[in-house]
Specification:
The protein is α/β, with parallel strands linked by helices and 465 residues long. Helix content is 48%, strand content 12%. The chain contains 15 helices and twelve strands. Strands 4-3-5-6 form a four-stranded parallel beta sheet, with helices on one face. A two-stranded antiparallel sheet has the order 1-2. Strands 7-8 form a two-stranded antiparallel ribbon. α1 runs antiparallel to α2 (58-73), α2 (58-73) crosses α4 (87-111) and α9 (268-304) runs antiparallel to α11 (367-373).
Amino acid sequence: MTWDPENFQFAGRGALRLSSPWVRYLALLADCALVCIAGVVVYNLYHQKSYGFFELPTSYQVLILSAGALLGLFIETLYRSWRLQNLFHMLRILLMVWLGVMAIEVMGLFLVKKTTDVSRAWYVFWGVSSFLLLSIERVLVYLWLRGLRRKGLNFKTVLVVGMNSIGDQVIEKLKNANFTGMKVIGHIEPSQVVDYMDLPQHQQPQEVWICLPLSDSLGIQTSLFALNQSVASIRLIPDWFSSKLMGHGLSEELGMPMVDLSYSPISGTTWFVKELVDRVLAALILVFVSPLMLLIALAIYATMGGPVLFKQARNGWNGKLIRIYKFRTMQHHQESEGQVLQAQKNDPRVTPLGAFLRRTSLDELPQFFNVLQGRMSIVGPRPHVVTHNEYYRNMVPRYMLRHKVKPGITGWAQINGFRGETDTLEKMEKRVELDLYYIERMSIWLDLKIIVLSVFKGFVHRNAY
């Protein structure tokens, strides 16, 4: 009985490859074991005793086991193939998933009124130590795989079809990503595929990447016909590099395969984690700032009278009309029908208190209630007035794609200096460009980065008037 490191199998028995679906379940079991070990060790250190897992209080056992079960909900995200992912990307995903698991458990304890049954210090140290163990595990496995690939093991051979800019970029990306273990063994034209596939078996590729524009139907068909007897995995890489598409991917509807050229990136695990983080953070922030909001409300009522809140219809997710809340900053005034005049520098409608609230973004605090209602997100494109949307949608390309996600209290455009009045078309174009940059790269990690940066450079700005 011999071990073949390349395929991770024992010769003479059923192969268990690193890409096998069973490997992800083994990885999940390993993670569950580490989470249990962390829970027991932290409990013993905290109480200066020596207990086994089954000697811990029931509430602690349930928390530890449920954490392992919750990791299983993210099996498609957390335990997908590592081959085409870099280490830091995987650790970021792990962090986001683990924070989501911890938040779900906190909410569960709150709902069943068991928060006093578990030590908060133990919970925090257990959460941190579990994440560290899970991270160390991944780093060690990652280094082990790198070691195998340096020895010429655990790699996949790739044949690139298409001697054009697409193929050149793909080869360059693979060359700069040696962690993938993908080895390019040929770069040919579609007409050469037939001759290449006639080579001896040991020279056949494990994967064939067809790098042709969708308009080259003849080249694609020629390649596929030549590969119809090949056991290689075949991938089509269209010219996404030069196309300004958003959320492009593959889907299947009514049994028909489709290429999605524009769809909302909020789905599946991303939607769940973002919704969870939004609601939990919004609730915590509202509790923390509620005394300040009460003082602001009293100050507005004392200086301007009622109402304290300003409510306005704006476009939300998928263009649906929503009503957002802000603290009132202007005196009562009448505007022309169908027109909404943006606040300008030294605007006579804005009161001294209102100017201060606008400069410091304190007038936006009631929008955390919009987040709790599910109408807004903490991070996303700022919602514009409906009349402005109607005006700019015909002037700025891809303008309405901003509504493919929920609008936000802060966003990528705001921390990059594009907030306040958009008195020129160039300013609006730049804001839309930054909003779409965020949507195309949206992740919980990027959301947290924007939230942190907003504290230092997003809330107080010279353009806010």
